[in-house]
């Protein structure tokens, strides 16, 4: 599995982990991770990119679509453990204004 | 002359007095004393008279014999002054001419130097103007209406273009992913349609079976069932047509699904842009901004320095032009030297005229007066004042 989901015991926090390359091939898999009732009920979404190697612009589109779908405001979705290249991409696309990048 | 006579008499006097005293002592005779005393008195009177006579002689005849010029020396002096007059007569006019030439050379050189310094000032001003024009070309008004170097504007605009490109990329991907998601939804709906079509096909098949059964039952009923057999056949035909339509729908939906899958892939390609290029461009831009900032600073500093240098050049030239006014001092010195040479010629002529005097004392006095006059003119001290003023660079003097 390239996309793994994990809820905390109280179901308040959903962590979505992405392995390998985060690109258009993960479109459906990534969508399934948040496009469900449990995810709708979660108060916080964390996208863990510890195992993510590269991202392209479709990954940015998928993150933005997720945000719109979950009706989460800026900063309510966290993106954590980015490598330096990924962080640079978030930097030049000003994603730190829309997501909480840690 | 008088003193010499007296000096020669004094030893005789001494010897005489000594002999008188010795004679008196040896003879022990009063007559000796009386005679000697009378003799001495006469000698004293005689000596004083001689002395007085010599003195009056000296005062009455000053020019005679010893005071008078030796004719030969006089001739030599006259000849010397004639030669001196000739020599100065020959030398002074060319000297005056040389002084005049020197003056004109100095004047000419000075004029050329003035011209070249004026040219230097002009060129320096032109250079300054050129530099100023460069600044004007490099400076532009930015959004805040403040002056900035064109490099800064260029980098700002480049950053803006890159930012626009990145925003566009993100926007396209966002919309692409949204479209792809919607297509996935459509594919889901189509899969549901396939299931429904299966149900419809099952119903049509069942209807066909029922129609077949109805025909069989109608045939068994004989003439009574003939009309029902027609209806059953119609129903069967409808069922068959329904199956056929179902198959066509299935085929079309399958085609649509395939097309949708193809479209999804294309949208995926549109939405999937590698961000490396944007990153590289961003890195390049950042480096370029740093480099251009350095250049910008360098240009600003250089322009300031250039302006300072121009001012320094103009100040130096002004000082040089001021210093060139030594020409006035040179002219003054020239005039002094000329006056002095002319006066020297006059002095020699005066000295020559004085030679008609035969008396040495009068002649020497005349010479002395000429020299005295020359000293009072003080050309040397005047020259020293002029030189000192020039060294101090006293502008007021000029």
Properties at a glance:
heterodimer; A: 102 residues; alpha/beta; 5-stranded mixed beta sheet; two-stranded parallel sheet; 4 helices; 34% helix; globular; B: 398 residues; mainly alpha; two-stranded antiparallel sheet; disordered C terminus
Give the strand tally of chain A.
7
Query: How do the helices and strands follow one another from N- to C-terminus of chain A?
Result: EEEHHEEHEHE
Trace the largest sheet of chain B across and list its strands. 1-2
Helix content of chain A: 25-40%
- Sheet/helix structural class of chain A: alpha/beta
Oligomer: heterodimer
**pLDDT below 50 for ≥5 consecutive residues: which ranges of chain A?**
none
Q: Hey, roughly how much beta strand do the residues of chain A contain? A: 25-35%
Biggest pleated sheet of chain A? 5 strands, mixed
Number of helices of chain A: 4
End-to-end CA span of chain A:
24 Å
Helical content class of chain B: over 70%
General description of the model:
Chain A is of the alpha/beta class. Helices cover about 35% and strands about 30% of the residues of chain A. A five-stranded mixed sheet of chain A has the order 1-2-4-6-7, with helices on one face. The radius of gyration of chain A is 12 Å and the shape is globular. Chain B is rod-shaped. Chain B has helices spanning about 1-25, 30-60, 70-140, 150-220, 225-270, 275-325, 325-355, 360-375, 380-390; strands at about 140, 145-150. Chain B is mainly alpha-helical and about 400 residues long. Chain B is about 90% helix and about 0% strand. Mean pLDDT of chain B is about 80; it is low at about 390-398. In chain B, a hairpin with a 5-residue loop joins strand 1 (about 140) and strand 2. The longest helix of chain B is centred in the middle third of the chain and has 71 residues, at about 150-220.
